[in-house]
Design a protein that fits this description.
The complex is a heterodimer of chains A (207) and B (406). Helix content of chain A is 7%, strand content 56%. With 207 residues, chain A is mostly beta strands. Chain B is of the alpha/beta class. Chain B has three domains: 7-27 and 325-403, no CATH class; 56-84 and 225-242 and 261-322, Rossmann fold, CATH 3.40.50; 109-210, no CATH class. In chain B, the strands form two sheets. Chain B has a five-stranded parallel sheet. Classes of the chains: A mainly beta (207), B alpha/beta (406).
């Protein structure tokens, strides 16, 4: 395994694996799904263990596609790990992210009770509710773009129907395929490059 | 090229145009005083500052006769102790609804932003910013309230009022739809029963226990320490004394029917206010400065405090006596006032041309004023107002005017 930036705990592409028990704000990309957790344990003997993580993405059953956010435990053997990467967000970046949340000061944000899909760029299903929410502020959006993940505090759909994310954590790969983490107070993304946007339901976060 | 200029006449003309530099002889807690204390009072000022810096809970009695500058001392302390939150109340004005009025003064002094910060910090401390799955802040109000109750239950006496305060703080931070209404509650606005029930509150801050609890929360959690300056403290004693017959107003009913025959309503009110002020000592970090007109009042107050709780006497500092001006003070006081006045008018030639002179007055006149007034600052200002009114308003020449004051 290679040496890595200190926030990368596991990277299958670059063959990075840091053994140990980590606590903090951890994002793991698992195929086309994302796992949020406050802990991860990596060891040669037990593999990778995440307890009480939130799995979010889509469940596809024949003709129906359904956005999910499930609270569950994960355990993978060392030889059979489906994770692409796991990163722990540095505490100073998380502090920036916390400071950027102004929902308490701004009462007109829509909190969805149940997890819903805002956009899915899949030719087979093709879901797009951006126009429906034009001009609204939605809380807790999660987006997957070709090469990365955006976790934002809120998203607003602008006049062109493009999502504008506020208070965002961005996890992605640079041209050398190294994983990078950054914080942006605002980011405008063309909906064409999006794979999906999921709005996390507040009730499902509480479970 | 200007060969000669009558600078003194120019100054007199300017004074006639602008009016007197001495306008008011009574200092109040509302109108800021910009001129600092005279030299002989600097040591006095620093002794108070030392006591305030060294003690967390203390009552400092300042005794000074009428017009010696007790209220002016408040402004001097406020300017010097800029790192304290310095709040003025006069017992002449806040005998009724004491806690509510005192809290209002604190809020006016500190501003709503302080309350917002306190509310945010407290909610964070009680777990409002806990990150679920490492990322998501969930406003679990019940959990936050439970943590708040566990932390505060041993610290506060009145359960009902502490629940109101916890409900208000958690709603302010965690329920964005109630935030504005809760801020109105924080600011002491009168809310009707419907608004209160929407916020899950029993009373607004007119309820004395709520006002006291909020005051305690505000003072104990603010970033800066607080000093409460209570002016005219002898009001309590004067209320307790029976009203002389000649000052009594004619009444159409016997007041003992309502208030009982043992105590007059004024005495009853005075006792209540004293009890409330004594309760302020339970607020950690609140320093109190009280002003009294004489040592007799001080002794009476001490006796009353001892009757309530003799342990409280330990918190009362030895009285500090504010005496009249010494002779040198009148000169510095006069110069400071004129410099401030002309500085504000941007007439900086005064500093160049009259730095060594007391023009339009002179040493003789200032000495005369000092002797006539025994150095009482208010009487000195009254004299100066009179002289300067004569100078600015009359057509007599200066020498003739000053002849009266030799």
């Amino acid at each position: 395994m290679n040496k890595s930036a200190s926030f990368v705990l596991y990277d299958s592409l670059k063959k990075i694996r840091i053994n140990g028990e980590f606590k903090g704000s951890i994002i793991s990309k698992c195929q086309d799904k994302i796992i949020f957790s406050d802990n991860i344990k990596i060891s040669d003997s037990d593999g990778i263990i995440i307890s009480g993580g939130l799995l979010t993405g889509f469940e596809k059953k024949e003709k129906i596609v359904c956005p999910i956010s499930k609270n569950s435990d994960f355990k993978w053997n060392i030889k059979d790990i489906p994770l692409e990467y796991s990163v722990i967000i540095p505490e100073d970046t998380m502090e920036q992210y916390d400071h950027g949340q102004f929902s308490n000061e701004f009462p007109y944000t829509i909190n969805l009770l149940h997890t819903a899909c805002l956009l899915l760029n899949d030719p087979k299903y093709n879901l797009n509710h951006l126009d429906f929410f034009k001009g609204e502020i939605l809380k807790n959006p999660i987006a997957m773009i070709r090469n990365g993940i955006i976790v934002a505090d809120r998203v607003v759909i602008d006049d062109n129907g493009d999502p504008v994310f506020y208070d965002c954590l961005i996890i992605g790969r640079d041209k050398n395929e190294d994983i990078k983490i950054s914080y942006e107070p605002i980011i405008n993304v063309d909906d064409e490059v999006m794979e999906f946007i999921i709005i996390l339901g507040i009730e499902e976060l509480k479970i | 090229m200007l060969l000669f200029e009558n600078k003194e006449q120019k100054l007199l003309n300017l004074l006639k145009f602008t009016g007197s530099p001495f306008k008011k002889f009574v200092s109040t807690g509302e109108i800021e005083e910009d001129i600092g204390l005279v030299q002989s009072r600097q040591e006095f000022l620093h002794s108070i500052i030392n006591i305030l810096n060294k003690n967390e809970n203390i009552i400092i009695p300042v005794i000074g006769d009428v017009g010696t500058g007790k209220t002016h001392l408040y402004w001097a302390l406020k300017h010097e102790l800029y790192y304290f939150n310095f709040v003025y109340i006069s017992l002449e004005n806040v005998v009724k609804r004491f806690y509510y009025n005192t809290y209002s003064e604190f809020i006016e002094n500190m501003g709503i932003e302080v309350i917002r910060n306190i509310s945010r910090t407290l909610c964070n401390k009680w777990g409002a910013l806990e990150r679920k799955f490492g990322f998501f802040h969930l406003a679990e109000m019940k959990k936050v309230k439970k943590a708040a109750c566990e932390e505060w239950a041993p610290l506060f006496e009145n359960e009902e009022s502490i629940m109101d305060v916890i409900n208000a703080i958690t709603a302010h931070q965690l329920d964005p739809y109630k935030k504005i209404e809760v801020e109105r509650w924080f600011l002491g606005e009168v809310l009707d029963i419907r608004e209160l029930s929407r916020l899950n509150l029993k009373h607004d801050l007119r309820e004395k226990k709520n006002a006291y609890t909020m005051l305690k929360v505000l003072v104990e959690n603010a970033m800066v320490n607080s000093v409460l300056f209570i002016d005219d403290f002898e009001k309590i004693i004067s209320m307790m004394r029976p009203i002389p017959i000649e000052e009594q107003t004619e009444e159409v009913f016997d007041r003992s029917w309502l208030y009982g025959s043992k105590e007059s309503p004024e005495k009853n009110a005075a006792n209540k206010v004293l009890d409330k002020i004594v309760q302020l000592n339970k607020i950690n970090g609140l320093r109190i400065v009280i002003t009294l007109k004489s040592t007799d009042f001080y002794k009476d107050i001490m006796r009353k405090i001892e009757d309530i709780d003799s342990n409280l006497l330990k918190l009362v500092n030895d009285p500090i006596i504010l005496s009249n001006f010494i002779q040198d003070d009148i000169f510095t006081f006069y110069k400071k006032n004129l410099e401030f006045f002309f500085g504000h008018l941007n007439y900086f030639e005064y500093f160049r041309d009259f730095s060594q002179s007391y023009y339009p007055l002179n040493e003789k006149v200032l000495n005369y004023i000092f002797t006539r007034t025994n150095g009482n600052p208010r009487e000195i200002i009254k004299f100066l107002i009179k002289i300067f009114n004569d100078i600015t308003l009359s057509n007599e020449n200066l020498e003739d005017i000053l002849k009266e004051y030799h």
